[in-house]
């Protein structure tokens, strides 16, 4: 008798290339015979939305930064939270993502940021640097 392997599909939305690579590689390194984590990374909300619109796979988990670079109509790039909060609200209102867990991963530990993310619909808020890569993997594995 073989044991079944649980596969989780994770979309990482992070504009910091170092954290994108860290998360992608961390999930790959710690994947096991019990839990495989397939990761797709995108660097902006626009890229994430494009991926979600075209993908046949609905992510089980969206792991995203809070202060993400956002392109505006005039081409200017800014880093702000409002588009992230709107993106979370939009996902939570869409039945396709009813079972998708949204994890905000941010360097900001202040309660006001955590509350704003939760009010928008984020399921969890993790602070960068508070968990080891193994603890992040275990957290995702147990979702």
Provide an overview of this structure.
The protein is α/β, with parallel strands linked by helices. It has a single domain, classed as Rossmann fold. Helices cover 38% and strands 27% of the residues. The chain has helices at 17-30, 45-54, 82-93, 111-120, 133-141, and strands spanning 6-13, 35-42, 61-64, 68-71, 77-80, 101-106, 124-127. Strand 1 (6-13), helix 1 (17-30) and strand 2 form a beta-alpha-beta unit.
Determine the CATH superfamily. Response regulator
If you compute it from the alpha carbons, what radius of gyration comes out, rounded to the nearest whole angstrom? 15 Å
Helix content: 25-40%
Shape descriptor: globular
**Structural class by SSE content:** alpha/beta
Q: What is the fold named in CATH at topology level? A: Rossmann fold
Strand order of the largest sheet: 2-1-3-6-7
Q: How big a fraction of the residues is strand? A: 25-35%
Please count the helical segments: 5
The CATH architecture classification is: 3-Layer(aba) Sandwich
Number of individual domains: 1
Ranges with pLDDT <50 over ≥5 residues? none
CATH class: Alpha Beta
Number of strands: 7
Distance between the termini: 26 Å
Helix and strand sequence: EHEHEEEHEHEH
Largest sheet: 5 strands, parallel
Please state the average pLDDT score.
85
